[in-house]
Amino acid sequence: RFLTGQFRIGGMTCAACVNSVEGVLRKVPGVKRAVVALATSLAEVEYDPSIISKDEIVVAVEDAGFEASFLQ
Ligand code: 9UX
């Protein structure tokens, strides 16, 4: 049973940032799918809430040097 969360990502200034945020997210245990859009600063993350919480996803992005907040 997966959930899909939308996150606002801050601090992405070039296309390589998108790749690095996606790479971080896809390596997080419990994340099944992550798509990041530079133009909108949005990330859509499909995750297993029995393995990881939305707050832990936020922390993983922030540990990589970006800002993140859960939208819905
Ligand atoms: Mo671009 Mo982002 O030169 O972390 S990769 S600004």
UniProtKB/TrEMBL annotation:
<protein>
    <recommendedName>
        <fullName>P-type Cu(+) transporter</fullName>
    </recommendedName>
</protein>
<feature type="domain" description="HMA">
    <location>
        <begin position="3"/>
        <end position="69"/>
    </location>
</feature>
<comment type="similarity">
    <text>Belongs to the cation transport ATPase (P-type) (TC 3.A.3) family. Type IB subfamily.</text>
</comment>
